[in-house]
Amino acid sequence: MPPHPPATASFPGLDLVSGARDRMLAPGAMLLAGRARATAPELIALIEAIALAAPFRRMSTPGGRTMSVAMTNCGALGWLSDARGYRYTPHDPLTGLPWPAMPAAFTTLAGKAAAEAGYPDFAPDACLINRYESGTRLTLHQDRNERDFGQPIVSISLGLPAIFLWGGPTRTDPIQRVPLEHGDIVAWGGQARLAHHGIRPLAEGTHPLTGRARLNLTFRRAG
Ligand SMILES: O=C(O)CCC(=O)C(=O)O
Ligand SMILES: [Fe+2]
Question: Do the record's keywords include Oxidoreductase (predicted)?
């Protein structure tokens, strides 16, 4: 071990070198550290505008439990969970209207991140927006409601930090705990496309841009 660890390890919020924490989580899965930091204020303002038209809500699981994460969507298709199961729909059941359009700033950044992770032609049609508060978590799951598992997933973290749980294709595979910070992007596909993943209960905190919350954008090609 070096006598002085790099400054980025001691002050993770201050690593001005984008990419200092980059890492491959598994073949096909990349942490692209800080890639959304520069556009974060714009992304957050766009999320706030989307939430005025399609409010955050806590959905029910098919088993009848209320999810702790609050969700909304933008794009041609939005992810839903209710008593009938998990699926994508073109309309928000809360308003009966189409989900708000996916802003160009979202599509551009998601496409760039996918390309950097080795998926050059990613054109997402669905963006799930998650809002976590202290104690909120997302249990280990696979993203498998999409039609084509040949398409990757791009996930952007904003606001409060979180611990991302990263497993493998089988539920019992070993789990890595990956700290995710404001502006981090994780992109996975190929042989990592069906890896189990989740979010540990969020710690209390306040972030200058999101207050007491973490926001996450998950981009997928669903249709
Ligand atoms: O919040 C995150 O970082 C992960 C979100 C996620 O896995 C999902 O929405 O399916
Ligand atoms: Fe997921």
Answer: yes
